[in-house]
Automatic annotation (TrEMBL):
This is Omega-protein. Residues 147-190 form the Topo IA-type catalytic domain. PANTHER family: DNA TOPOISOMERASE, DNA TOPOISOMERASE, TYPE IA, CORE. Keywords: Isomerase. It comes from Gardnerella pickettii JCP7719. Residues 10-132 form the Toprim domain. GO terms for molecular function: DNA binding; DNA topoisomerase type I (single strand cut, ATP-independent) activity.
Amino acid sequence: MKGESMTEQNKLVIVESPTKARKIGGYLGSGYTVMASVGHIRDLAQPSQVPAAKKADFGKFGVDVNNGFEPYYVVGADKKKTVSDLKAALAKSGELFLATDEDREGEAIAWHLVQALKPKVPVKRMVFHEITKPAIQASLANTRDVDDHMVDAQETRRVLDRLYGYELSPVLWRKVGPGLSAGRVQSVAT
């Protein structure tokens, strides 16, 4: 692709779902490769996934509770091929468009894609509320950056879920019965 201008290079669009990828790919046509992340590509590390050098800080929760609740993320084993495929497609692209859902989770998925793929090309965030050709074209014309505030909100929710679930679930197992779990949404608020 040396010698090609950015406008001549393929553009990579990443959505969450393979069904959306096919539909949107049909609307965008040639010049665009549309692929799916199939949801989140990274999550908080399980204790067994934390490297030995980081165990003291992140080993219990995948979160450093002593330093601003810093999370330690890993690409799950089931997502390594997806990330590899996305990196390969990105290497052939002149621009990256993140078209994940316009909600907390979608914004976080977009952020994690940037962190994992480490693009060296311009990154743009596409948002739309319907999958129609006019909506997709309008979203291409009105891109924005990833919303860090929404990413922070999702990260806070995920960290709280981990801390709450990891601490309360063992109590439930001892007091009520094995196999029960407690999460922020699963448990009754008092």
